[in-house]
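Predict the assembly for these two chains.
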Amino acid sequence: MWPYILRNLLQRLVLLFIVSVIAHGVVHLAPGEPTEVDPSNPRMKPEDIVKIRKAFHLDEPLHLQYAYWMRDLFSGELKSFKDSQPVLPKIWDRFLNSLPLFILATIIIWTLSFPTGIHAAVRRGSVYDRSTTFIAYTLISVPGFFLSYLAILWVVSVLGVPVIGMRTFGMEDALPLFRGMDRLWHLVVPSLMTALGGIAVLSRYVRSQMLEVIGQDYVRTARAKGLPEDQVIYRHALRNALLPFVTMFGFLLPGLIGGSVIFEQIFAWPGLGRLGYDAILSRDFPVILTINFIAAALTLAGTFMSDLLYAAVDPRIRLH
Amino acid sequence: MAEALRNMQGEPDKAAQSMTHETPFEEFWKLFKRDRLAMVGLGVLVLLLFMAVAGKALTEWWVVFDPAAVNLVDKFKSPFSQASALVPADVRPLAGIYLLGTDELGRDVFARMLQGSFVSLSIGFVAVGISVFIGILLGGLAGYYGNLRLGIMTVDTLIMRFTDVMLSFPTFFLILTAVALLPPSIYNIMIIIGITSWMGTTRFVRAEFLALREQDFVVAARAMGLPERRIIFLHMVPNAIAPVLVSATIGVASAILTESALSFLGFGVQPPFATWGNILSDGKGFIFDAPWLFFIPGIAILVVVLAFNLVGEGMREALNPKLRRR
């Protein structure tokens, strides 16, 4: 067990290193430097560009730039090109903004997908099964921002409440209770829209997993023993069907960054995805690279956790 | 789509042949036909293919609909409205009627949608083509030559670790970074979507190859002294292609969605090309004044992506060996 964990950790560190090298290469080798964001600015003289490039180490060879980035990242000295603010606190602030959105969306996804998927599997071929299947595919196929705009229009015109941003402007002096309600309200619509795609995918996965298990011999045995149908489904089948989902907790982590760019942009939510988007627009290399680095580290940590969890819950699997 | 299905006719499946006299394709088709949603999806896709070819022909080679003609007198005309008499004859829409209305510059939305159907579809197909090519190549190498040692590691380790590296990138963020930093061009978008989405294909082609390598017909082919190139491309690839086709079908759907998401963020295909994604994202600003600019491309994307997904799932079900013998 322990040798497996150690070896696996080491492998993942090597992977992370390679990922960071590739990301660094892609970002620095692609045309377009921070100095060229505003080429029409008449006050930008060639000597200024040389000065800026020197200050950001952009005139050094690539491997030295990588070394500078790594040194600054791990000593916490890394500064944004755009406003010279330290990168890590900046990312941390935005992370705290993204976190509630992520948590609420995850809760919505997991609480809605399981009942929907199990019910569809148990009544395979019924009207309920076919209609949820169709709705799930529709949700997977609709462009996220199209649906979100419709939702915003509907919420604003029917319910008459604002949905943009994290809080209502001018509510700073309100009672904490009202401020909390305001925050919660602003949270609900974006997290629901973020969750829709996830519900569709996960409920389909639950359905196919349940179907797989319901076809197994031990379920037939349980039925043959004369057990009530509820007990067969929820005791015998569901428990076994749940196994793969334990591991999915591990895959949740990277979703914190990757999937949120569009929705944070639509709802003007000042989270990590938007920070990344703004950094890309202004060629803020340290911020882009660090977000990418953190995302890769989270992905690797997630798959590592899911391996361990799988071994922990399924006695048939031994790590060696 | 139709070509892809026809290719599968040649697929040798001994078990199926020994039971019945149907070819594997006939068996596949019988199962696929039972799925009504997938059949509707297939119908939509055939229609779309015609529309895309017609779109290319009628907007570029023999210009009946001009997607670039700007008529400021006719801006924000609703669908089915008459063109104004001030519009010069050579840029008038067919029969003087804007079928799907006009946009903020008075361009014919129908012409733009026609042009966009070809561009959107070709983004999907080229991106998936690239990812399937890389996937089969790397997956096949890892599966067939996996045990070969290159210095300190085997080919299999090298390729699969590289796949892991690519899987560790946050995909959409990587696509966004690359598209934003490279010069804006439709080809860059196709290539970037393609080279960031081959990992799944590689994994299951490798798994299929590992299983196939030990099968009797491959051992026999090797014993007969066939060149490896023949064994791989004529005997193994056709047997491993079914799951690749399923994931390619769904891949086209997600490439079209990715393109529309990029357009929304302002990094999509640049003018003069119209794609459904950028018509939609331009239309979002006029959702109150000209709702058709928003709803027509949005619903078109929804229907087409849905059709690709339904066909892909229908294929997956029909190719599922557990369902085949029923």
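Chain B has a mean pLDDT of 82. The two ends of chain B are 26 Å apart (CA to CA).
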